[in-house]
């Protein structure tokens, strides 16, 4: 069963147990899905309503496009949840590979590295995609129904949490790589993403007077 078909109770139950997944990575993607869903709610209360009719044609068209992208990001976030579970489960399986002789040891090490990289890329891509979503939230804050501004702001707060959480999971896998060549830029890239995310989130929250 995919996470999107879980009840809230089922997800929380599996999250709290000793099952290998869901964990922090899938939870980070769930938080990004919640952020995009909240943002979509702003558009649902705006498009074709009074506040929408007051916009010029250019911003009406932009809002429709942003609303579609917001809906798409919900689905994409759910896919990131599955990607995290899949890559992490596969990585865990590689540690069970035999290591009785040199050939098996070399193969096991090779597979662990490959699957660690895949497990690292899943949250890394989530963080990158989430960072881009700030454009959407900023538009919702500026042009959406003003009664829903607080919901768009909560979306920004959640989005930053998703990005920070995703980066933590990137570092967990990055730090376990014995050979970090080709990936040495990842720590700085991640720190820069968190910096940019905090700046954009803070700007949105500050605009609400907090």
UniProtKB/TrEMBL annotation:
GO terms for molecular function: hydrolase activity. The keyword Hydrolase applies. The keyword Hydrolase applies. Gene3D superfamilies: Formiminotetrahydrofolate cyclodeaminase monomer, up-and-down helical bundle. Residues 7-191 form the Cyclodeaminase/cyclohydrolase domain. Pfam families: FTCD_C. Keywords: Hydrolase. This is Putative methenyltetrahydrofolate cyclohydrolase. It comes from Clostridium celatum DSM 1785.
């Amino acid at each position: 069963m995919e996470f999107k078909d879980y009840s809230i109770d089922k997800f929380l139950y599996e999250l709290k147990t000793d099952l290998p997944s869901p964990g922090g990575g899938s939870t980070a993607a769930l938080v990004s899905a919640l952020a995009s869903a909240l943002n979509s709610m702003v558009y649902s209360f705006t498009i074709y309503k009074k506040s929408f009719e007051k916009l010029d044609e250019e911003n009406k068209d932009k809002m429709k496009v942003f609303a579609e992208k917001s809906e798409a990001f919900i689905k994409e976030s759910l896919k990131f949840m599955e990607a995290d579970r899949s890559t992490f489960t596969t990585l865990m399986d590689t540690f069970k590979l035999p290591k009785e002789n040199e050939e098996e040891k070399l193969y096991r090490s090779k597979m662990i590295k490959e699957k660690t990289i895949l497990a690292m890329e899943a949250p890394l891509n989530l963080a990158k995609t989430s960072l881009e979503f700030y454009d959407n939230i900023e538009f919702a804050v500026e042009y959406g129904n003003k009664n829903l501004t607080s919901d768009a702001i909560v979306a920004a707060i959640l989005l930053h949490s998703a990005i920070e959480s995703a980066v933590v999971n990137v570092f967990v896998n990055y730090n376990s790589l014995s050979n970090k060549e080709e990936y040495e830029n990842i720590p700085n890239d991640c720190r820069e993403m968190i910096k940019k995310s905090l700046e954009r989130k803070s700007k949105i929250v500050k605009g609400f007077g907090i």
